[in-house]
Structures are given as structure tokens and as C-alpha cells.
Amino acid sequence: MRLELRHLHVVLAVAAAGSIRRAATSLKIAQPGLTAQLRRIERTFGGQLFVRAPNGVALTDLGEHVVLRAQEVVDKFDDLCATARKIAERSQPASIQLGGVTGALIPQLVSAVREVLPEQDITTQMERTGEAVMDHVRTEKLDLAVMAEFARTPPQLPFGVHRRPLLTEPVFVALPAGHRLADRSELDLTDLSGEWWTMPEESVGGPRSTFQLTCEAAGFTPRFAHFGADLATALELVRSENTVAGVHPAIHDVAGIVVKPLAGNPLHRRLVLVWPETSALADVIDRVHSGFITGYLHRTHRSALYSRWWNAGGEEFALGSE
What we know:
Layout: H1 5-17, H2 20-27, H3 31-45, E1 50-53, E2 56-59, H4 61-91, E3 96-101, H5 105-116, E4 122-127, H6 130-138, E5 144-149, E6 161-170, E7 172-176, E8 196-198, H7 207-218, E9 223-226, H8 231-241, E10 245-247, E11 257-260, E12 268-276, H9 285-300, H10 304-319
Parallel strand pairs: 3-4, 3-5, 8-9
Antiparallel strand pairs: 1-2, 5-12, 6-12, 7-10, 7-11
């Protein structure tokens, strides 16, 4: 007879029960059938595994050896099944969880993942701050997120979180259409030293702190008028309150607003992908990374202003080494 895993379960059941009768009950088979099966198992092992005892059966020396090793085999097999299931679940999760700070980058990320896994369900979680996004990645609530980093205030990467740079994106400046600088094709940051600024929500290491450090390095301290504005609110405040604001370079035309690049790109952010070690996307990050950049470039050239910047040397700045 060839021994199989089920035979080891029989031996372990008899040893645990200390009685063939009780083992037969737990295994839900007839006692005579169990006895006959046990005898065949013993012949295969070459000797008795059990002897009669006052209250049932007891292990022989051979039986103790077999039970010890059989338990190891069964435990390893159970571990094999459990780890295989985890890998299978990772390979084919019920839903891919993507995230990032609210804005245009998340749809770009969804498109990149969709291209790699067209049949996979995808859900998104959008937050107002990078800290909230990173916390979701750290606690494995997100499989992948797109985030922005700022050179003067780089974030600390939590243990177990991986990072892949995408590109460096310039920050342009939105001005009221009637602003004294509205006719310029490009501005110096110092041209805006006397302006009042509308800033997005404060985030540790985010735009406001980075912006202030950059302005101070240029020789002036910026003046802030409004904080915590989303893009739509920021643009309305630029138009109605005669403030200025940093904006995404591919922003669409907005009535009453003009957008200008800054000479030398002093304000910029590094776009990166971050994911936990256990991410369901860990094995396809290279493909998602490539797809994101390809999609981003298509989007870039849909904006006349951003496309001009890109073709005038911006590509080297954006895609150069970190």
C-alpha cells in the first residue's frame, strides 16, 4: 500500500483519541473499517504503532516516532496550503485599492493599472493630505498610491513601504487676467515677492512649507492670504480677491485667469508611486510605472502651455535623474 496524507491523519486521530472506537467516531467511519485500515498502515511502516491499553490503545516506540514525524508532515502541508492561498489571493485580489491626494493624478493611476489588469476591479481612496495617503499605504489599506514629494521637505518612508519615482512636475502660477504681469510669457519667482498668495491645505512637508522655504532662499518672505483651498476655490480667490496661486501645469483655461510658468522651475514636485510590501500590484509595478508616464505625456500635450514648456527643455527637467 502506498501511504498518503489521509493515512497520516488516521494515525494522528487514533493517537489523539487514545482509542480506536473514539477515533472512528471523530473520523466518521465504522470501527471495523478503521481497524482494518490501521493494520494496513502498520504493515507499510513495518511494525505495530499501537498496542492495547486498559482504556484503549497506547503508542509503541515505532508509533511515537511515526506520530511525531507525521505531525510535522501534516503541519507543513497545512502551511503549504495556507501560504499558497495567500499568494493566490495576492495574485487575484477581489479589488485593487488605489489612492492619492484629490486631483488629476488618481485618474491617471487608475488608467495605468487598468491597462495592465483590464479585468480587475479597482476602487480608489482620495485624501486631502499626503500624510493620510501614506498612512493608508503603511497600514496596507491601499495597494498603490501616487504622491508628490518636495525637495526641501522630503518625507520619511515608513518601514515596509516601497517607492518608485515617476517624474518631476513644475508648479505654474495663476494670476488674475488683469494682473500687471499677465502679459509676460514667463515669470521670475521674485516678480511675485509682493503678492498675496492663496495656498492649498497645509500638509507637513507639503506645498506651503516648501513654498515658503523656496521664497526665502530667493530673498523674500511670501505673504499668505488664504489657506486650505481646493483648486476651484483657489482659482475663484485669484480672480475675485486679486491673489496668486500655484497650480498644476496642465490646468485647463479658466475665464478671468492666466497661468504662467516660472523661470528655472523653482517650484516643483516629484511624483512617485508608493506601495506596501504586500501589495497585490508588487509584481507589475514596472508596467504600471511605464503606463503612468505614457499616459501623463499624452495629457501634457493636450495643454498648449504645458506642451510649450515641455518642448522648450522641460522634458529633460521632468524626466531627468532624481
